[in-house]
Amino acid sequence: MSFTMTSKDYVAYIKIAAKKIHENGEYISKLDATTGDGDHWANINLGFENLVAAGDEMEKLPIDGVFKKIGMLMMSKIGGSSGVLYGGAYIAAGKALAGKETLTSEDLCLALETMVNDMMQRGKAQPGFKTMIDSLYPAVQAYKAALAEGKSDADTMEAVKKAAMDGAEDTKRMEAVKGRASYQANKGVGHLDPGAVTMSYQLECLCDYVREHLL
Ligand code: ADP
Ligand code: MG
């Protein structure tokens, strides 16, 4: 039996992720100042502030509507690559979840898989390019493997979180192929990709939310 994640749960998770992102402002800005143009934290933080502000309204929507609304807010409120990539990904996931009121574990996996596929297509990036995809892609692979193996929800969440965090850490050794770090002489080698780190924060908070509140 899978857990059930409601719109209220998803909004509660968004609030926790917003807090985690907010608290790490200095750290993420420093990472992006090294390999990018320094605005990644400001972009993603502003996006999450807008999501939190829309929380009451979103709680009343079915889950597919929540994903679409998040996508539209991210697309319109976040500047830079992140706005387009997160916005497009959430809208695509909302379509994949069409007609669903709540999420099962399989639905959540499908949503994340749809998001990473949309991001890869939109940003013309693959795993290994030193982007946020390097956290989300391994997390989705771990999620699919855990479901196929019939792991418990608790073990599944642990595996997804670990893959997301290891994936972000792994960007340190990668040469950037897409994004601003690819314009640097050393392609950002030796530095974490800020977008991968903020992605891993979100996945960490999501997995912890499921484990602490839904199991
Ligand atoms: P910008 O690249 O416009 O400055 P942000 O500062 O908001 O955008 O976000 C930077 C992050 O976006 C990078 O750290 C990287 O993870 C991600 N990113 C940039 N370009 C791409 C791309 N083409 N595909 C996937 N992710 C990307
Ligand atoms: Mg930037």
Highest CATH level, the class? Mainly Alpha
The total strand number stands at 0
Number of domains: 1
CATH fold description = Serine Threonine Protein Phosphatase 5, Tetratricopeptide repeat
Distance between the termini: 10 Å
CATH superfamily: DhaL domain
Structural class, by secondary structure, is mainly alpha
- Total number of helical segments? 10
List unreliable stretches of 5+ residues: none
CATH architecture: Alpha Horseshoe
CA radius of gyration: 16 Å
Mean pLDDT: 97
Main sheet record? none
Name the beta content range. under 5%
What's the helix-strand series?
HHHHHHHHHH
Described by the principal axes of the CA atoms, the overall outline is globular
Fraction of helical residues: over 70%
Describe what you observe in this structure.
The chain has 215 residues and is mostly helical. The protein has a single domain (7-214), classed as Serine Threonine Protein Phosphatase 5, Tetratricopeptide repeat (Alpha Horseshoe), CATH 1.25.40.340. The protein is built from ten helices and no strands. The longest helix is centred in the last third of the chain and has 21 residues, at 194-214. The N and C termini lie close together (10 Å). The model has no long low-confidence stretch (mean pLDDT 97). Adenosine-5'-diphosphate binds at residues 32, 36-37, 39-40, 43, 80-82, 85, 119, 123, 125, 131-133, 178-180, 193-196.
